[in-house]
């Protein structure tokens, strides 16, 4: 099981619940939330909403410009 959080500098990071295997997903973003199946993370990036895989790949914008 993993946790996703917003860093003070605006990036998103995932980490195992045991505190190990920390991974920086992106250097920007806030207010992350997991998809129900745990494969995607949706988050606010500036004035748009982005989606990124939990491994940091396939980032794309859902809403906004």
Can you tell me about this structure?
There is one protein chain. The chain is mainly beta and 65 residues long. Helix content is 0%, strand content 54%. It contains no helices and 7 strands. It has a 4-stranded antiparallel sheet, with no helix packed on it. A 3-stranded antiparallel sheet has the order 1-2-3, with no helix packed on it. The N and C termini lie far apart (33 Å).
Short description:
With 65 residues, this protein is an all-beta fold. It is built from no helices and 7 strands.
Topology:
Elements: E1 2-6, E2 12-16, E3 23-26, E4 30-34, E5 40-45, E6 48-53, E7 60-63
Antiparallel strand pairs: 1-2, 2-3, 4-5, 5-6, 6-7
Question: What is the terminal-to-terminal distance?
Answer: 33 Å
Query: Would you tell me the overall average pLDDT?
Result: 94
Instruction: Enumerate the strands of the largest sheet in spatial order, edge to edge or round the barrel.
Output: 4-5-6-7
Order of helices and strands: EEEEEEE
């Amino acid at each position: 099981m993993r946790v996703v959080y917003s860093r003070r500098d605006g990036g998103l990071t995932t980490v195992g619940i045991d505190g190990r295997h920390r991974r920086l997903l992106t250097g920007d973003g806030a207010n992350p939330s997991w998809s129900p199946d745990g494969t995607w993370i949706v988050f606010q990036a500036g004035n748009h909403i982005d989606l990124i895989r939990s491994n940091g790949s396939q980032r794309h914008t859902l809403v906004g410009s």
